[in-house]
Amino acid sequence: MRKYLRHILPGAAIFLLLALTAISAWRQNRLHSKRTALQNPDVYDEQAAMVESMAEKFLDDLDLAAVLDPQGGIYRILCPDDTLEQLFTDYLPSYEPQETLGRELRSRIQTKTGKIGELTVIWTIFRDTEEAYMDYLDELLVEQDSKAEADRLDLFVIKSEQLSKYCGTEVPVAMTMDELGIVDGYLAGQYSSLRSLSALYNGEQRAVTWELPCLVWLYNRKIAEEVLGTDDPNAVSAAIADWDTFHETAARMREAGYRMYSSFTETYAPHLPSVTRSWINSENAIVFDDAVVDWIHKTKDEYDAGSVTGTIRRSDEWKHELRSADDIFGFFVTPHEIHSLIGEREDLAVAAGPGSYPSDASWLCGAVGSDNRLLTADLMKQLTTDTEIMRAIFKGTGEPVNNRYVMQETYSAEIIETEEQQSADLQSDISPDRSEEEPIAEESEAQAAFRKLLGGQNPYRIFHEVSAECELPYITVYDRRLGDLLAESYIPYFKGETDEASALHAFYQNAQIAYPDLTG
Predict the structure, then answer these.
(1) CA 166 to chain centre
(2) CB-based burial of residue 284 (10 Å sphere; 0-12 exposed, 13-18 middle, 19+ buried)?
(3) C-alpha to C-alpha distance for 357 and 467, rounded to whole angstroms
(4) Looking at residue 219, what DSSP letter applies?
(5) CA 106 distance to own-chain centroid
(6) Rg of the Cα trace of the chain?
(7) One-character DSSP codes across 304-333
(8) How many angstroms separate the CA atoms of 241 and 461, rounded?
(9) 129: closest CA among 484, 498, 513, 501?
(10) Pairwise CA distance, residues 56 & 320, whole Å
């Protein structure tokens, strides 16, 4: 706090301390408030409104320019692409983009600038592989304490699969929501399943996302009509509701001359919610969960039977089939992949699958050691908790957002107050036409365009439903890389180029090269 007080007049300093004291007192009672909220939603709304009002008054009364250092304060952001910068430009009224300063390291790093009041925002956009991006981020975080305050990283972006590394370790690199002053009242609209993903160490949430990233089943309507007798999303969801029915449906597709899916790894991520233990046990040894073993055997069987093309997910071949193949029943994809990859097709629709997994979302983390904590908190609140801004993002992009109130508006005029009530409603009030061409109130051009990609289907209730159950269980810092190595090692086995024992040996060998600390 001393970092901020140097730049504030004495009267403002007193106000700041009083305001933070009041917020701290509220935090001490937040557990009681949460219990009360589950019993009485009206009380919860009243308390959430109180917090919102307190925070708004605090920010209105505070001289933000003074807090941020009027002598040329700098706010530094690291991200893997320009998605976040575009959100700032389109949806944050206080942000003004400035210029692109250049590229370096063979064009991997692009630097851009912007303004929030008198404060300069410096963007470092590192476009490279996931591993290279994490290596670069690691270097910045290791050097954080030794740098001058103006040179420190303030905000960084990670993907869902990186949450365990940056939010689940005992030595923190990302600030908790409590440290940022983002109390539970602000986070009430976010899906609890997504909130828990970044609360991997001591149950403390350390990252937030505006996206709704959970995988859904994108299927060919014509094939569904021919083989299943209907292309209704509810019926298709029932045909792949669990892995037994999924493989039964794959057999029906084969009999009709169609393949069930494209990539060897198409079904790996959706299998992960079924796992019951981590990849690594207490003795630091690699262990195979039954769900992973089941995935290996079922993938081999499906490929041998002709149900799988044999592409690599997100490869050019996989993308080509996603855009144009008329003999593949479906793909597991995120809403963003639907939006960005399927091109001009209008013969597709989405259904809920046998497993919902959060894939590839962008998460915001406030870097420990940042001297701009208040601004980080304000930016996180605006982009991931402010209902009006999230509604604007939803309408402006057509892609679903991490706000259950906004998402429910797409199919229901009545807002559900608690997630417990929400879950009960989803179980008891699912109509046969729950997601087929339902109207959207005040539909935007982007939402209409998104629905056009799906032949007019309103997919947002399905996105809402699967996101309420999205899981990333038993995640460790090893899991994402081990999953990739598993696929890499077993693909020759799936293709019949080697036997299962050789694939297993290759996996252990590759795993121990990647992680020398692990045992066999």
Answers:
(1) 14
(2) exposed
(3) 8
(4) E
(5) 29
(6) 24
(7) HHT-EEEE-TTSHHHHHHHHH-SSB-EEEE
(8) 16
(9) 484
(10) 49
Q: What is the pTM of this model?
A: 0.80
**Pair of tokens at residue 391:** 């509604």
Tens digit of each residue's pLDDT (9 = 90 or more) over 445-493:
999 999 888 988 999 989 998 988 887 666 677 887 898 899 999 999 9
172 and 333 Cβ atoms separated by less than 8 Å: no
Q: Measuring CA to CA, which residue among 193, 210, 183, 237 is closest to residue 28? A: 183
d(CA 407, CA 401): 7
- Residue located via tokens 């940022």: 180
Residue 362 · residue 209 · CB < 8 Å:
yes
CB 123 within 8 A of CB 77: yes
Are 132 and 54 spatial neighbours (Cβ–Cβ below 8 Å)? no
At 299, the amino acid letter reads T
Task: Quote the CA–CA distance of 45 and 41 in Å, as a whole number.
Answer: 6
Q: Which distant-in-sequence residues (6+ apart) come within 8 Å of 514 by Cβ? A: 481, 482, 485
For 394, phi then psi, to 5°, come to: -60, -50
- Which residue type, as a one-letter code, is found at position 395? K
- DSSP H/E element including 409: none
Tokens 């402010």 belong to 386
What is the pairing mode between strands 155-159 and 74-79? Answer: parallel
Structure tokens at 13: 């300093």
With beta carbons less than 8 A apart as the criterion, state whether 240 and 246 touch: yes
Query: Which residue's entry shows tokens 């929501």?
Result: 177
Please report the pLDDT score of residue 22 as a whole number: 43
